[in-house]
Amino acid sequence: MSAFQNSTVRWMGAIALAVAFGLPIAARAQRYVPTADPEHPRIRYTDSLTSLNDRCMVRKSKLNLKVRPVYVNRQPVGFC
User: Fold this and answer.
1) Would the pLDDT of 32 be above 90?
2) Under 8 Å CB-to-CB from 47, ≥6 apart: which residues?
3) 55, 61 in Cβ contact below 8 A?
């Protein structure tokens, strides 16, 4: 068995075990965190940090989950 096939078999086995035990398979995705203003929630990123801002600095609209943050002093700043 090649190294690639061996690696693939291991991953498939790990996924099968995760499904069997009900464990989450995918990594946590970015998600909105509710704030006092329901129209402008903050974003919790995959590194478990929450955005400093609750609205886009450019258009003053809701932050976009698909746009990567910019880190300022190790804190994420979200954009639209």
Assistant:
1) yes
2) 76
3) yes
**Alpha-carbon distances, residue 59 vs 55, 63, 71, 79, 80 (angstroms):** 8, 10, 19, 9, 7
Torsion angle (degrees, nearest 10) of CA 19, 29, 37, 57: -170
pTM, full prediction: 0.61
Query: Structure tokens of 60?
Result: 């003053």
Mean pLDDT of 19-25: 59
**Taking 60 as the threshold, does the pLDDT of residue 27 lie above it?**
no
- Mapped onto helix, strand or coil, the DSSP state of residue 51 is coil
